[in-house]
From TrEMBL, chains A, B, C, D:
Protein name: Aminopyrimidine aminohydrolase
Reactions that this protein is recorded to catalyse: thiamine + H2O = 5-(2-hydroxyethyl)-4-methylthiazole + 4-amino-5-hydroxymethyl-2-methylpyrimidine + H(+); 4-amino-5-aminomethyl-2-methylpyrimidine + H2O = 4-amino-5-hydroxymethyl-2-methylpyrimidine + NH4(+)
InterPro entries: Haem_Oase-like_multi-hlx, Thiaminase-2/PQQC, Thiaminase_II, Thiamine_Salvage_TenA
SUPFAM superfamilies: Heme oxygenase-like
Organism, as annotated: Parasedimentitalea denitrificans
């Protein structure tokens, strides 16, 4: 699949780690979501871990507000926190509730080591670096799920086992979040790295953050499969 | 005026620095807002500084999401960021626009030293301490404006010069924010300090943060008056 | 082995997660260090990862200075950063240099997921919580290595394969660091939690941080063994 | 006085705010230190505030370790923390002890609003931005005191009232700190902004941080004079 149009920065960084990106977006877990062969037990294990992931991901996007330097950056980050806390996490709560798992149980779930590694890496990118360092580490999750959603939606029926999950991310509302974040990110990059960002001194470091976060997405899917 | 009912923690901390609290809530600037004698120039000077204040205050409430340990703490902080960015700041934008000051000009305004001191003190309370340290430093602004709004609304006519400002804070919507924050704060205190928080080892430190932030509110009004 | 005397806080937290603590301090990797059966390849793999670990551990102790509230806390944290950067890491540099691995190669080593998880968890404990939250997450490494050093030194000859490693931690200089940190930690706990800290509302949360960090130590040894 | 040779970055930033820089380094307070006309009371007021300033300045340099991306950055920041905590602050402790003011009294001194503004602004520069943002805000104090020390030492006798203060900063040891920090800063800038840093997109923002911190130095001297 070609890259969705989430802006220039995403296109460059995705291209800069294509093997990792494909290992992430075409992972066996993803394929199992698409063709419905993923065991329910693995899905639920993933969903519980992903809920805790989103808690810390919301903390990281809030750190994005703390690190913003423009009004636009603040507003996009604040809106993303709202989307995560009040919408994306609701899918997890609803699906898990149907299986008898309460939201407090989700919040208190014991984190797998891959989960800790990913979320705390992102938060530390924000503590150690600036807004761009944090965004480069946040980007693979936001954009990757958008790309996976679009990709799986092309071949999934409405009554497929994981159609609800797929539609959450293929949905125009989520795609619109990706487009907005991508546009904001391009502006944030231009503001700090100028007109030719991939030629700037910091690009390799930022690419490394994007690549590391992408590799940690792969480990997250591995963890999901292990839950079978 | 008696303390509005914004919870036990607020009641204790307000009582713990009553002279400072009264210097803040009964300041000459506040009286000038109430009786309409505050020069327009001073009000506009204050409003521009307060806009920049709210930018950093939003950053501090976002840091509150980063530091939350419960779902309720996260949700209240995220909702407060939304209220600040999308509602409270709108009053400033609208009022200043009528005077020919654009939002970008507000965002870029040169901060007075009292403004820097207050906002950065609050942010550092969050960096240095935990969720309670941050909340103790955030509380005087949230609750004080609520109390001032109620107090001034008792004697203000709808056509008074600063009725718009007063109503923003006397409004049930803002009062509801105060009540929600107060309830969340009581829960956050109980969770960390137990059933008898004022007897706990940390109380003096937390009171000191509340008192320092209250004193910085006084300096902020002083700065407003200096703008004449 | 009974707990070394590194203060009351350590004694309580160690007791509060004894199975995890024993899984950590009596791990197969530790036994292999003691009886010399640990393959050299596994040791070097561990040493390279541990160097990067110490880089981030130094960052976390520096965050301890940022979060200190007393002069004593500042001084102990600053001295620990100095001990890490200028002494403990020197063992790694020297040992690795003998194997043809430069310090820059160590600094640039690709981190294993267990390494990322542990160091970033500790740093985030400091970002999310206060000084105690950070210290509870830092404690298992400092004190555990002291305990392991003492334990292995009882049965190790001076010419044993890993005597250099063992002596680094059994050494009076390192033991003195443990005692100093332990005493400072007891003071920090008394200041914030009072005279009966294990009965305080925050104790369970702090124990959880200590336990999680201990479990991540176990995973770190697992990772070391995997390097064979 | 021409700029001391503390590296290219300092030279550019100093030049970029020359009126502010001169208001800082040629302030009436500085002149009073040099010719001995500064009232003792003002000096002591300044010294007490400066002690608390150095506490938070040490916290900010420790945050520099947290934000470092190279071994050299870490080592220089850690060494600066050591120099501050164990050497520069000793002058204050010793001088104040001779006046009957204990170190604990210094640590607990009530901060003036200019003091809060300056130190928390620097700390927030580190929280909001990256290593360079923090360094740009830390630089005016480090380099300015070096320049002032050299400047005053040219015309001061050994028995002048404030010769001790002047010598602390004119001393080769302190000048060596300035040179080391300046060299590290040039490297940090090259790493992130490339070969022509003043032409980079971020330069204006970094200059603004340096200028703001310089202006806050001016306010700090104002505060010192007010202590008369």
């Amino acid at each position: 699949m070609t890259a969705p149009n989430y802006g220039q920065t995403f296109a460059h960084m995705r291209e800069g780690c294509l093997p990792s990106w494909q290992a992430y977006t075409r992972h066996a877990f993803v394929q199992g979501l698409g063709d419905g062969t993923l065991p329910r037990k693995a899905f639920l294990h993933y969903l519980v871990q992903d809920y805790v992931f989103l808690v810390h991901f919301s903390r990281a996007w809030s750190l994005g507000v703390v690190k913003s330097e423009t009004l636009d950056e603040m507003k996009v980050c604040a809106a993303t926190v709202d989307a995560l806390v009040n919408h994306e996490m609701a899918l997890h709560v609803k699906t898990c509730a149907a299986e008898g798992i309460s939201e407090q149980q989700l919040f208190d779930a014991r984190e797998e080591v891959e989960n800790i590694a990913y979320t705390r890496y992102v938060l530390d990118a924000g503590l150690q670096g600036d807004f761009l360092d944090l965004m480069a580490a946040l980007a693979p999750c936001v954009f990757g799920y958008g790309e996976i959603g679009l990709q799986l939606a092309q071949t999934t029926n409405a009554d497929a086992p994981y159609a609800g999950w797929i539609n959450t991310y293929a949905d125009p509302e989520y795609q619109s979040v990706c487009a907005t974040v991508g546009e904001m990110l391009d502006g944030a990059v231009a503001r700090r790295l100028g007109d030719d960002p991939t030629a700037s001194a910091r690009w390799a470091t930022l690419q490394d953050r994007f690549t590391t976060a992408t590799d940690l997405e792969v480990r997250f899917w591995d963890m999901g499969l292990r839950g079978v």
